[in-house]
Design a protein that fits this description.
6-stranded antiparallel beta sheet, 11-stranded antiparallel beta sheet, 216 residues, mainly beta
Length: 216
């Protein structure tokens, strides 16, 4: 039945309904559920939908073992997902992200869409929302080697430096351990670079007002 996440008064989610190419889509079909640690897999023949719960959000992705059967040869691979919960998402970041911002509620982001093949080659991918509110993830698999991985993140927490500036490239390097996140910001302090340490207490992320280290 897909997923539903909550942040404050906002609840939003997606449920996979169909897969195919272009407008030639077939129902997603029956699935089996498999769970291990913080990872849950929903397996449907050649398609595995998976969820990984991490400190910054829920990573939701798909692994497609082989090309979908379709008469729409040459059209992009399409995953159709029905929205659940909050009002319809809006497309941002050139089709790589969705923004969910109900009036008076918390903002959620379904963001950072990336798709790549078995060789690690990144594939053109985008998201759109049609008139009925269906989210379409499209991937151009021309020349790709299967399996494909399609991988966005549902972000309910955004970590920023205390004094962010344009082009600081925060997040170029990130390491996580339980309730601690270490983030590299190479453009901080006139591009000398810095490292910030974020800690989570009772569900809220905090950062020191000064960086843990400034590179010289």
């Amino acid at each position: 039945n897909g997923f539903l996440v909550s942040a404050g008064a906002t609840s939003w989610g997606l449920r996979l309904t169909a897969i195919g190419r272009g407008n030639d889509l077939a129902a997603a079909g029956a699935a089996t559920l498999h769970a291990a640690g913080n990872r849950v897999e929903v397996r449907r023949n050649a398609l595995t939908e998976w969820y990984v719960n991490g400190p910054l959000g829920l990573e939701h992705g798909f692994t497609l073992a082989m090309p979908p059967t379709s008469v729409a040869t040459g059209e992009p691979v399409v995953l159709a997902l029905r929205q659940q919960g909050a009002p319809s998402a809006s497309v941002t970041d050139g089709g790589r992200s969705l923004r969910i911002a109900p009036a008076g509620g918390s903002v959620l982001h379904y963001a950072g869409l990336v798709a790549y093949d078995a060789r690690g080659v990144e594939l053109p991918a985008s998201m759109s929302v049609d008139a009925a509110g269906t989210v379409r993830i499209e991937v151009d698999d021309g020349g790709a080697h299967y399996p494909l991985t399609i991988d966005p993140l549902i972000q309910h927490t955004k970590l920023t430096a205390p004094s962010p500036v344009a082009d600081d490239f925060m997040g170029s390097a990130v390491d996580m351990s339980d309730d601690t996140v270490v983030v590299g910001v190479p453009g901080y302090n006139n591009a000398t670079g810095a490292v910030f340490v974020f800690t989570r207490t009772v569900g809220s992320w905090q950062v020191a007002t000064t960086p843990a280290a400034i590179l010289t």
